[in-house]
Give the backbone structure.
Amino acid sequence: MLEVHLEILVEWGHCDPARIVFNPNFFVWMESGMYQLFTTANYPIVKMSEEDPQFLGVPLLATQANFQKPAKVGDTITLVTSISRWGRTSFELSYRFLRGEDVLCTATQTRVWCYAEGEGAQETIKPAPIPESFRADLSVDKQVHIKLVSS
């Protein structure tokens, strides 16, 4: 599977008064990981929505995280993002936050491929089959490393 390794510098604003990362920041970084994974595979989500106004993106259905060790101000951590499961209309993203060899947090997100159906007040969000080209491009055996200075 395609893996994106996103390097993140933990800054003061990411942390609580104890100088450890405030846990919601991990979820913000997961969004960055998903965005970079899609963009790396040549599926920039914003461009996809602009090119097809009926495409509403990949809303979050479920998420889960296990926090093993804290990250602190000044740490450089790596977020590894990949697809761990494909369904017909949904998929699961897998996330690992590392500081060197230490696993800080593991998490998953289940997302669904969605389109708009109808118009105006009658518009609804409907799941749609995930395109085969998207599956194929995110299933390649490749690792990409990206530095994120701040978020």
Notes: The domain at 2-148 is CATH 3.10.129.10 (Thiol Ester Dehydrase; Chain A). DSSP finds three helices and nine strands in the chain.
